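note to self: dont lose this again. the chain is below, predicted strucutre after it. 456 aa total, dont forget to put it in the shared folder this time
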Amino acid sequence: MSNSNSIGAARPVHVIGGGLAGSEAAWQIARAGLPVVLHEMRPVRRTEAHNTGRCAELVCSNSFRSDDADYNAVGVLHREMRRCQSLILAAADANKVPAGGALAVDRDGFAAAVTDALARSELVTVVREEVEGVPPADWGPTIVATGPLTSPSLARALRELTGEDALAFFDAIAPIIHKDTIDLDVAWFQSRYDKSGPGGGGADYLNCPMNKIEYEAFVAALLAGEKTSFKEWETNTPYFDGCLPIEVMAERGPDTLRWGPMKPVGLRNPRTGHRPWAAVQLRQDNALGTLYNMVGFQTKLKHAKQVRIFRTIPGLAGAEFARLGGLHRNTFINSPKLLDRELRLKAVPHLRFAGQITGVEGYVESAAIGLIAGRFVVAERTGRALPPPPQTTALGALLAHITGGAASESFQPMNVNFGLFPPLVPAPHGRERKLAMSRRAAADFDAWLGPAKAAA
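---
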């Protein structure tokens, strides 16, 4: 993408929301030489989950998940975003912390890097204000990237505009523990199967082992623990299966946790030489290595109960919590029904949507949809055609799913996965199928990106 003085003199593109999707969209637009006004209501108006006014603040995990571009669909998406000079992936790479095969980041350093990059751009103006209603038509092409915590006033305006009730689900936040309060005479460092990842060395997770009796007592405590109560309008809101509270998983059966976030497969306690019955994994959460988050332990337990129950985990008897778990309500639109293939609202085409409000789930997916939304705006404003990425690519598969591939009657949030990709014919099996899909995605994405670069 190139900078152009003539383009730079044009009226700005408006982006509403300074989360991962909005920040990425603004970055892609500015890189093309178009001015951007990025509207972010924090810190003037806070949300239920954010703590700062920084752009791209991470409120749940600090993990961007697998960075394996050969065998994991989210790793393929990482690769494609890097090929597009993604701000979010560049900031993640610059602030990564050890996390086995995953790309995890120092959350403060990551958000600061994104915020600083946007502040340094001469073409990006960040306006700290809440956009309370539907953006006016005289703004021209506008991207709504207000995320899962869209303010009530804007959410109401969007519902009135579309005639659609917003869909919603609950998303829970995992606790973070001070490392120096973890008993390293009990816990040990090891990644499952000793697998290393970016910035790691094969022993990136702290593991707290449980025997059968300890595990069963822990599950019983989770089931009995007092949970946060729902408001009346929240009682029928479904959870997203990829981010279930740990106590909800426990309700699904006594072994659900043991074969979910607490699975001991690939782990061996060096003190006993045996695989534990179950294991709680802790992942480094900041660059200093002073904070560790409880992997998969998002929860709606009340804070006092969290402290009591989580301190029964071997190795965490003296744990001090930098942040306890929490629960917040996420909102998203019925994208397959409301959006066209270029993320425009069919009823009001000057509005585009991006990020989690479109029904994608996950940091990377949200930023990816912000990236392609920004590029669609650039193509529209410069009069150049930009076809959607092929569905054989991770970005194209995700985009196709939310803009018509999913059934609107049962639409729910979705992470990128190889199930969204067109099948191979003939179809290899197991890991070979994933590798073949990854290689096809790489070739097809490069073929798409060549003309896309030329158009920019």
